[in-house]
User: Which sequence fits this backbone?
């Protein structure tokens, strides 16, 4: 809601006083309520609400703030709140919000219908409630986001500089990852000595710190266990504003309304079934959500915005391509963190986050929302770009549709698309060095790539360097069980003897060892993400991960606690391409472990080693190819310690360095790269 609407919301003399669905031409829902084009009321989920006289007059008055505001409504004619109990029985109460507020302050877990789907809500200070939520949601460790009333409240919990404050306050209202104040971590095992190295200056620290600390809020330790950062957002709907105000502006856990990793619920029936057993009560309303839309997630690193998920508030805003697409083009993205993208001409539209396509609900949304976007932007694709991976559901969809409709297909290698994505954001024409570090991508040799140094532009690339191949014993299982990658790296470095302290049974270790020896069900990988997993498993003894990238994130936090500047040795093998030999790194880590070196120091040294490796390879490539422009892309570059370190080092060596600022470095950015390639293709 805009400022004018917020004022009305809390103005007792206004006819929309405390009305949770007020909006105007400057604010209110858009993407989530659209059913078709042209965008007017009949083709939104507001169609069934007949405007009262007052609303109609505003709607037709060209001088009114609500002139042609399609979702315009008031308490007389618009949507209304309803509360339901845990068994989805409608509560026959006068004031549904009051009932919800009372339950939440009493420690209940509520399901709240927000803009793009349901959130699960509880008092973030109430340890029992937060722990109960984790248990019911089967979400053991993944951090929860917190909603607070204003910037002051955010600063009571976290460090928040001016840039971060601006981002929190922006109309998109994303979740912004902020560094928790040390004091909020009290009682936690992982006490931080403070932010590592030179960091963004905290604009708020100059004054008022003392006063703020006096009114310190204690969050439950279970909100973001062991995590130095906290995802914070401000209210993004009038309903959120009312809820917070009525609850006395306490911090609330607001997490997506789903069980573990499936897409968030956005329809009532769906919420009632899927959130049964999780929510103690539901606060819902009768304005349907047509397009499911997750919260966006942003981080600021080295004074630059770094999107981790670009969704609510950002999609379907358009981005400018470096070259126009001469034909209507559809890019279907990857498989995980999927987004698709459309363009005809220079303006590209990148979709909201659709998630993991192997989930049926996510896949259905992928097909349905794509149809909607094609209508909204009046585009019938004549070219479809897809990932090279034959088994991605997006690839299968592209092939089927191309065959059915006689559309041209354009395959694109995964890491090439990552590189093109970062290039497109900065409108580079190339050639560049694409340092592409991620978890998994299908390589042209059939191996699992993920630690790649590419050289090229939108149309072409050569794989100029890679991390040394090791095996993934058990294939996909090695992603969920990082000890497998640790074993593989130990085996590769001739240190299998040190596998005994990995958290796996002797049987498991034996079986995996046999897989490594005979290569059965153990594809080759150059993945940097898996290397992070391996080192994390060695240092933290983690057996399984409960969410993607967890091991790598823990390694980053661990490293953040050390100011160690040393690094481990490595070697570059100069063959037809540079192969980074990571075995010396692994051996040194094992030696450090045996010596009893502080684990945070080992983690930091590992980060330093990767920075050294990347700098050395880039030096080499500049020498042989004469290219000094580097793009840093792929999900591993969401690691702030790494991305800052590499950036700083390369700048010092007079490279020109680009990182992602508009679309995520992870697979959510692939579709933009795919489009840019099609555009350059003509
Ligand atoms: Zn407004
Ligand atoms: Zn009305
Ligand atoms: Fe990727």
Assistant:
């Amino acid at each position: 809601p805009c400022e004018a609407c917020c004022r009305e919301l809390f103005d007792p003399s206004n006819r929309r006083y405390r009305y949770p669905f007020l909006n105007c031409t400057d604010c209110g829902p858009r993407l989530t309520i659209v059913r078709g084009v042209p965008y007017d009321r009949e083709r939104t989920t507001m169609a069934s609400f007949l405007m009262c006289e007052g609303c109609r007059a505003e709607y037709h008055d060209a001088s009114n703030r609500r002139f042609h505001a399609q979702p315009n409504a008031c308490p007389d004619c618009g949507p209304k709140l309803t509360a339901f109990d845990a068994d989805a029985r409608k509560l026959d109460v006068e004031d549904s919000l009051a009932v919800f507020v009372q339950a939440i302050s009493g420690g209940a877990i509520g399901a709240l219908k927000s803009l793009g789907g349901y959130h699960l809500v509880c008092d973030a200070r109430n340890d029992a409630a937060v722990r109960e939520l984790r248990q019911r949601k089967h979400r053991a460790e993944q951090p929860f986001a917190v909603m607070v009333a204003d910037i002051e409240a955010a600063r009571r919990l976290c460090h928040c500089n001016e840039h971060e404050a601006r981002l929190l306050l922006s109309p998109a209202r994303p979740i912004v990852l902020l560094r928790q104040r040390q004091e909020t971590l009290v009682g936690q095992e992982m006490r931080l000595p403070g932010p590592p190295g030179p960091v963004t200056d905290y604009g708020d620290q100059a004054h008022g710190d003392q006063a703020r600390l006096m009114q310190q809020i204690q969050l439950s330790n279970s909100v973001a266990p062991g995590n130095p950062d906290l995802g914070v957002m401000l209210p993004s709907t009038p309903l959120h504003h009312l809820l917070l105000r009525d609850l006395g502006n306490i911090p609330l856990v607001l997490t997506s309304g789903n069980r573990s990793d499936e897409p968030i619920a956005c329809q009532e029936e769906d919420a009632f079934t899927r959130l049964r057993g999780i929510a103690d009560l539901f606060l819902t309303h009768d304005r349907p959500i047509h397009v499911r839309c997750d919260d966006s997630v942003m981080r600021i690193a080295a004074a630059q915005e770094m999107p981790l998920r670009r969704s609510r508030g950002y999609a379907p805003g358009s981005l400018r391509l470096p070259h126009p697409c001469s034909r209507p083009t559809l890019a279907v993205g990857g498989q995980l963190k999927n987004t698709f993208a459309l363009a005809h001409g220079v303006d590209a539209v990148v979709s909201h986050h659709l998630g993991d396509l192997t989930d049926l609900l996510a896949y259905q949304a992928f097909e349905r929302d794509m149809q909607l976007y094609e209508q909204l932007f009046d585009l019938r694709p004549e070219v479809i770009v897809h990932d090279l991976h034959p088994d991605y559901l997006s690839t299968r969809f592209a092939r089927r549709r191309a065959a059915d409709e006689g559309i041209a297909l354009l395959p694109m290698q995964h890491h090439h698309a990552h590189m093109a994505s970062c290039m497109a954001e900065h409108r580079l024409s190339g050639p560049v060095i694409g340092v592409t570090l991620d978890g998994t991508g299908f390589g042209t040799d059939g191996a699992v790539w993920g630690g790649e140094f590419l050289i090229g532009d939108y149309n072409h690339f050569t794989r100029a360097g890679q991390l040394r191949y090791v095996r993934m014993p058990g294939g996909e299982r090695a992603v969920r069980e990082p000890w497998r990658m640790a074993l593989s790296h130990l085996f590769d470095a001739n240190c299998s003897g040190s596998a005994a302290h990995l958290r796996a049974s002797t049987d498991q270790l034996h079986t995996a060892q046999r897989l490594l020896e005979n290569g059965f069900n153990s594809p080759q990988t150059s993945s940097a993400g898996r290397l992070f997993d391996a080192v994390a498993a060695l240092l933290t003894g983690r057996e399984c991960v409960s969410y993607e990238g967890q091991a790598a994130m823990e390694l980053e936090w661990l490293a953040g606690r050390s100011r160690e500047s040393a690094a481990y040795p490595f070697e570059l093998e100069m063959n037809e391409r540079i192969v980074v030999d990571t075995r010396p790194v692994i051996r040194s880590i094992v030696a450090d472990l045996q010596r009893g070196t502080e684990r945070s120091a080992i983690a930091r040294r590992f980060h330093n080693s990767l920075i050294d490796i990347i700098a050395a390879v880039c030096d080499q490539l500049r020498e042989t190819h004469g290219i000094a422009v580097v793009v840093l892309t792929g999900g591993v570059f969401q690691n702030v310690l790494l991305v800052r370190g590499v950036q700083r080092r390369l700048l010092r060596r007079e490279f020109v360095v680009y990182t992602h600022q508009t679309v995520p470095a992870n697979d959510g950015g692939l579709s933009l790269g795919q489009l840019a390639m099609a555009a350059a293709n003509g």
